[in-house]
Amino acid sequence: MTKPIIELRDVQKYYGDYHALRGISADIAQGEFFSLLGPSGCGKTTLLRTIAGFEDVSGGTVAIDGKVMEGVPANQRPTNMVFQSYAIFPHLTVAQNVGFGLRRAHLSKTELASRVGAALEMVGLEGFGNRAAHALSGGQRQRVALARALILKPKVLLLDEPLSALDKKLRENMQVELIKLQRQVGITFILVTHDQEEALVMSDRIAVMFEGEIAQLNDPETLYRRPNSRRVADFIGVMNFMPAEILSERGDQVELEIAGLGRVEIPAGHASSGGKGVSVGLRPETLTILFNGSDTPDRVAEGVVEEVVYYGDMTYYDVRLNGAAAAVRISMRNLVGRPVLEIGTRTRVSWSPQALVLFR
Ligand code: ADP
Ligand code: MG
Question: Residues with Cβ < 8 Å from 131, sequence gap 6 or more?
């Protein structure tokens, strides 16, 4: 990793008796797009606010750019925050909103105008400077909030669920724009989100948080493919959990009996179950329904379609494999000429031992 811009060491936060942050440690690299992902109430905003300096830590340290931030007020940290509610001033113009943070910088009129113009251009709002802020759409307000934060040239931009108020289409567009913007300006972004898809799409690395602790910190692909616990696996995407029995263990290999899939030998891995016994996880796209004419792969199970959910580009099938207690979810692309199966259809399903994640 390149030099960390943020170093969190055993960060603790108490609100009275309530232990909101329980020993958070992480390094965030210069220029990284880093996300804090977790359910509501797990401490994401609290952690962001301790980095920004809006909250004191109860223990541990936050260092930014090599300097421990203890006692450094928010306005003297090289960070800037974009809030969930954009908090823009409706009675001011767009340009006045964006230039607000520079009002004490004693810039000449022309210099201020050029900085504001550059910031507006960055977020795709060139020409909107004289518009009244109250006359903007939700997406445009979010851009104003971004421009207002970027104009101060922070080393780290902290974003607390910045897109959560936008509708789905606009949110997806803004996700892509934010990624491009981050690449272009090259500063570190720390994004808070409870939306796992958003975190996967946008981040270089993601810290998954539960109850004030980081449960797993990895790049999106590792998090998705190799979740280190059932809880993380369950929180990110869809995961089929199938009960399994360990038959034998040799070195790093484990031989399992899985109801519905049969016997298989896989690497033991490192995942932990959280006390629900041994199980394996399989993502819906790693199971494949074999239509007529499909290749015959080595691992095939048989079952009956119990539920069909049609999404246009995809269909989700719940298939009860012979000998299994519950159905597994399988996602299939809807190709031209491929039928959508009906409930009750007997079908063959191929799967790959490589895709199995062991939880124990
Ligand atoms: P998230 O952003 O992940 O939804 P927060 O960081 O806002 O979670 O809150 C984490 C926990 O700390 C929650 O249980 C919340 O109720 C509590 N909390 C947050 N801020 C305060 C506060 N100022 N006083 C007391 N409890 C708080
Ligand atoms: Mg929050």
Answer: 93, 94
Helix (H, G, I), strand (E, B) or coil at 149: helix
Residue 160: nearest ligand to its CA?
A: 2
Instruction: Clarify whether residues 283 and 322 are in a common domain.
Output: yes
- Ligand 1 centre distance from Cα of residue 11 (Å): 15
Pick the last residue of a domain from 203, 230, 257. Answer: 230
The helices-and-strands tally (H runs, E runs) of the chain is: 8, 20
Tell me the pLDDT tens digit for each residue of 98-139: 998 888 888 899 999 999 999 999 888 999 999 999 888 888
pLDDT in tens, 243-298: 999 999 998 899 999 999 999 999 887 667 666 689 999 999 999 999 876 666 77
Does residue 127 have its Cβ closer than 6 Å to ligand 1? no
Question: What is the domain range of residue 271?
Answer: 238-359
Tell me the CA–centroid distance for residue 297 and ligand 2, in Å: 46
CATH number where 311 lies: 2.40.50.140
Residues 219 and 303 grouped into a single domain: no
Is the same domain home to 167 and 280?
Answer: no
pTM: 0.92
